[in-house]
Design goal:
It catalyses: L-histidyl-[protein] + phosphoenolpyruvate = N(pros)-phospho-L-histidyl-[protein] + pyruvate. The chain is an alpha/beta fold. Helix content is about 40%, strand content about 20%. The protein folds into 6 domains: about 140 residues, Mannitol-specific EII, Chain A (3-Layer(aba) Sandwich), CATH 3.40.930; about 120 residues, 3-Layer(aba) Sandwich (Mannitol-specific EII, Chain A), CATH 3.40.930.10; about 80 residues, HPr-like (Histidine-containing Protein, Chain: A), CATH 3.30.1340; about 110 residues, Phosphohistidine domain (Glucose Oxidase, domain 1, 3-Layer(bba) Sandwich); about 100 residues, Enzyme I, Chain A, domain 2 (Orthogonal Bundle); about 300 residues, Alpha-Beta Barrel (TIM Barrel). The protein is built from 36 helices and 31 strands. The structure holds phosphoenolpyruvate and magnesium ion (MG).
């Protein structure tokens, strides 16, 4: 997210005009590496479309969509202009914020600014500001931040028709929706107040974020009073007052009973937002109109400014409410208030006008909003999923992301866009709708059964049969049935039921169960596709580059690798497990491309460059030819490397590096040996434990490991003991939902909670090894006690099994293990550095978070220092060090790892020949010089630039 620091503000500037201000800002952004040359033209072009004056003396120039490719790194720079600069329409800007944003990060900044701008005297305060701190303080909107945030109604916190016969049961249902903790639960159950007309209130202090749940029921009595609905509030401060005021409106209008009888949470949510006085068929008063915003980025500054201009032409007082936001009204003639509504594509606005020309004002506003307020609009998203508008990308556009798997892919895109379903909310014939739903459910079940029959993949078969199980769950059918009886159409009833079941599931404190929410939505969509006669996207049967919001490890496992030329995701990070899988399959991949990639048209020709991190869309013939030449060269290099794959990796000055293979499955051992791997440097043993309904027993594990030893034929096997938790849960080992799973109970920490599981694994490994070379290492060791626990268990088992050739090591992937390497080196036989996690924990950057992809670079000098410390400590004790993280396969990193003294690297089998070839190009002496320089560098970028010097 964009944010401003004091470094980004220059005070007391004097510049002649708007153009000079924009040029100065663009130049500054360019100097700081945020944009490439030419961005100033884009900013001026945006200005020509609409002035970026926000209000209160503040302007926010930023580039047009077309110049986004010039943005290298999002950033913001501010110039304070106490004399003011004319920003058009007679407005003077005293503070100008120049924004470089590759996607729509600036919208959040605008929202925050909008809050600050609600201060009436802000322009004057900004003009008179004396320091950079003053500016930051003013922009933070201090006055508002001291108040509790306004709490809004949320559909997912509403549930209608709950079967309950006591107030306590209703409170329990509300607590479940709120995901209340024990303290909140107790306080909510101890509080009950009858507001009237069967509406009850339970209120408790919130332990975390404030939340408000609404549950309605068919009716019973409590203490002689009717119970029809309960509002449960977990709140602090007074941010919930607007909610109480809206509910009070209904009770004062004597319509509490009608409100409690609303058919479903959508109806209840809309009714509360519209208020009790909305007559007419569409539920609106004469002076109200409802309109859906269909701009790609919602109501941001530019369309917002146009809306304000229209509103200002009328005398009528115009109020605007975002029915999908927090439900409060704002003045339709204030740009900052409008932006503060946080209107996203598909959100509904309720416009209310009062005054002599109210009708004309509404008419004109609705027409203008429907026409996009000067922008292109996308179709209305009336279905359960968001629609991505296909953009007409200019030919020859290069989009930038983060390379996650090297290589070039050329081919048509297949953009896996979430499907949009169109359907009426209500129907007159409940019986007919019920039959429709029943038929659709039966059809979906038949389809699932056929798919399970057709697949040869056991994991896929398990998932499909679990989906059949879910589909037949009577609770879903009953929930949908109740909605049909209340007049909902079959798709509306089915989707509302799916939506609330998935929401409840996602709130489960058990991480594994919470993950089932995705499966519920999956079967939900399958049935919706039948009901709405809208086919779900079919993957092409000719080779393609797959573009998706995110691709999970299971998608990669299940995809047809023959057809997928490359992978591109809007989110994700380079060391997320799906990226690792892509690398292991040798498929070029890009991650963290941003949402814009989802707007690309399927079938468009593109070039994916996994090394440069770019996607070139609709390239010119010249660019295409260049890419084909590069691809041919890559193939040639790969072929040469393949030819020499069985030779050792020796530098030009005679130093040998061992190259092993990383395996996530023993079935790939033969492929690893075939690629020239000198052993398995990392066996991720999780695979033995995954895809099962219970933990594998000793014999099953032993058989798996034995397969690898047999194929390795005397080469060493480095097995990492079970590393689950974090982003890798196990179905039969429920791990409580954690706020920070990567900092939670994972790896060795989890094994310490079930020692018998680790003991069985050690026994299976040692027994399978016999007299063959086995290296065992433990993941996520952060503390001496963990290592001692693991080592003592190992010694106990080894005393019984007596395997002949075993070493015991530590995975260095937590900074504390590297910092204490001297201590560990006295006791362990070897270290293997897990650079994926080591980078994540050193830089506090989630390895799966695309936003942080550039930061989480294993070539950061801080990570290199930890590697150097580890190697030094190990070598002082005569122990060896490997690198099994993804850094080992990075051609730029390899000379540095050599120079730092690493003895072995382990990479995905497909990369083994290339890594060996790269080592043969290097001289150890030069690598050592390079490493010394890199350790003194200030950041990863500088280190990468240094590596270019060693060729
Ligand atoms: C690592 O963290 O670098 C590593 C090899 O382990 P994993 O990627 O399986 O967490
Ligand atoms: Mg790891």
């Amino acid at each position: 997210m964009l944010s401003l620091t004091t470094q980004d503000v220059k005070m007391g500037q004097t510049l002649a005009d708007k153009q000079a201000v924009i040029s100065a800002l663009a130049e500054w952004l360019e100097q700081d590496g945020n944009v490439a040359a030419g961005y100033a033209d884009g900013m001026l072009a945006r200005e020509a479309q609409t002035a970026t004056y926000l209000g209160q003396g503040i302007a926010i120039p930023h580039g047009t969509q077309e110049c986004r490719h010039l943005v290298k790194q999002t950033g913001i720079k501010a110039l304070h202009l106490p004399d003011g600069v004319d920003w058009g329409d007679g407005e003077k800007a005293y503070l100008v914020l120049g924004i470089a944003a590759g996607s729509d990060e600036h919208l959040e900044l605008l929202r925050r600014l909008a809050r600050a701008l609600s201060r009436d005297d802000l322009a004057e305060q900004v003009r008179r500001a004396e320091s950079r701190q003053d500016i930051l303080r003013l922009l933070q909107g201090e006055e508002e931040s001291s108040q509790a945030p306004v709490l809004g109604w949320r559909r997912e916190w509403m549930r209608t028709g709950v079967e309950a016969t006591s107030l306590a049961a209703l409170q329990r249902a509300a607590c479940e929706l709120l995901n209340a903790d024990d303290t909140e639960r107790q306080a909510l159950q101890a509080s009950s107040l009858h507001l009237g007309q069967g509406w009850w209130l339970s209120q408790a202090p919130a332990s975390g974020e404030p939340r408000a749940a609404l549950v309605t029921t068919t009716g019973f009595e409590h203490s002689g009073q009717p119970v029809r609905a309960l509002l449960a509030l977990a709140v602090n401060g007074n941010g919930h007052r607007p909610l109480l005021a809206q509910l009070a409106d209904w009770l004062l209008a004597d319509k509490g009973q009608a409100l409690a009888a609303m058919a479903d949470s959508t109806a209840l949510h809309t009714a509360l937002a519209r208020g009790p006085h909305a007559p007419g068929e569409d539920g609106l008063a004469d002076n109200q109109r409802l309109v859906v915003v269909r701009n790609h980025q919602g109501l941001h500054a530019r369309p917002g400014a146009m809306m304000v201009q229209i509103a200002k032409q009328f005398e009528a007082d115009i109020r605007v409410r975002n029915l999908d936001g927090d439900g409060h009204d704002v003045n339709g003639k204030s740009l900052m208030k409008l932006i503060g509504l946080g209107v996203r594509p598909g959100h509904q606005l309720l416009l209310t006008a009062e005054g002599p020309d109210a009708a004309a004002a509404l008419e004109q506003l609705v027409t203008a909003i429907n026409e996009g307020l000067g922008e292109d609009v996308m179709p209305v998203a009336a279905g359960p999923t968001l629609v991505h508008q296909v953009q007409d990308i200019a030919p020859d556009t290069e989009m930038r992301g983060v390379g996650a798997s090297p290589g070039t892919a050329i081919g048509p895109l297949f953009v896996e866009v979430p499907v949009h379903f169109d359907y009426p909310d209500t129907a007159c014939d409940a019986g007919a709708e019920q039959r429709r739903l029943k038929a659709a459910l039966a059809q979906a079940d038949t389809d699932l059964a056929a798919a399970a029959e057709a697949t040869h993949e056991p994991q896929a078969r398990d998932i499909l049969s679990m989906h059949r199980e879910l589909l037949g769950d009577p609770a879903l059918a009953e929930g949908a049935q109740a909605r049909l009886q209340r007049g909902a159409s079959a798709p509306a009833a089915w989707w509302s039921e799916i939506d609330s079941a998935a929401t409840r599931q996602a709130a489960s404190p058990n991480a594994m169960l919470a993950e089932r929410a995705a499966d519920i939505r999956d079967i939900g969509r399958r049935v919706m596709a039948i009901l709405c006669d809208t086919p779900l996207p079919q993957t092409p049967n000719a080779p393609y580059i797959w573009v998706a919001e995110d691709i999970g490890p299971s998608d990669v496992v299940n995809m047809n690798a023959e057809l997928v030329l490359g992978l591109v995701t809007a989110g994700g990070g380079p060391s997320s497990h799906s990226a690792i899988l892509a690398r292991s399959l040798g498929i070029p991949a890009l991650v963290a491309m941003g949402g814009a990639v989802m707007g690309l048209k399927s079938g468009t020709q593109a070039i994916l460059n996994g090394d440069a991190g770019t996607l070139h869309v609709a390239p010119t013939n010249r660019v295409l030819e260049q890419a084909k030449a590069r691809q041919a060269q890559e193939r040639q290099l790969a072929e040469q490397a393949w030819e020499h794959r069985n030779q050792a990796a020796v530098t030009t000055d005679g130093h040998r590096l061992e190259v092993g293979a990383n395996l996530g499955d023993t079935a790939k051992t033969a492929a690893a040996v075939e690629s020239g791997a000198e052993g398995v440097g990392l066996l991720r043993t999780e695979f033995v434990f995954m895809g099962r309904s219970q933990a594998p027993d000793l014999a099953q594990q032993q058989a798996e490991y034995d397969k690898a030893f047999t194929v390795l034929n005397g080469r060493p096997l480095v097995a990492r003991t079970l590393d689950v938790g974090g982003d890798k849960p196990l179905p039969y080992w429920p791990v409580p939902k954690e706020d920070n799973p990567f900092l939670g109970v994972r790896g060795i920490r989890l094994c310490m909670q079930q020692p018998e599981l680790l003991e069985t694994q050690l026994r299976a490994l040692l027994t399978a090894a016999g007299d063959r070379p086995l290296r065992i290492m433990f993941p996520m060791v952060a503390d001496w006690s963990e290592w001692r626990f693991a080592k003592e268990m190992f010694e106990r088992v080894q005393a019984e099994v007596q395997a002949a050739d075993v070493q015991l090591g530590i995975m260095v992937e937590v900074p504390s293990a590297a910092l204490n390497a001297q201590l560990f080196a006295q006791d362990a036989d070897f270290f293997s550095i897990g650079t994926n996690d080591l980078t994540q924990y050193t830089l506090a950057a989630d390895r799966g978070n695309g936003e942080l992809a550039a930061l989480s670079d294993g070539l950061h000098p801080a990570v290199l220092r930890l590697i150097a410390m580890t190697v030094e400590a190990a070598h002082a004790q005569g122990k060896w060090v490997g690198v099994c993280g993804e850094l080992g396969a990075d051609p730029q990193a390899l000379p540095l790892l050599l120079g730092l003294g690493v003895d072995e690297v382990s990479v995905s089998p497909g990369r083994v020949p290339l890594v060996k070839a790269r080592v043969r190009e290097c001289s150890l002496a030069r690598c050592k010089d390079l490493a010394a320089k890199a350790l003194r560098a200030r950041d990863a970028q500088t280190v990468r630039a240094l590596t270019g010097e060693i060729q």
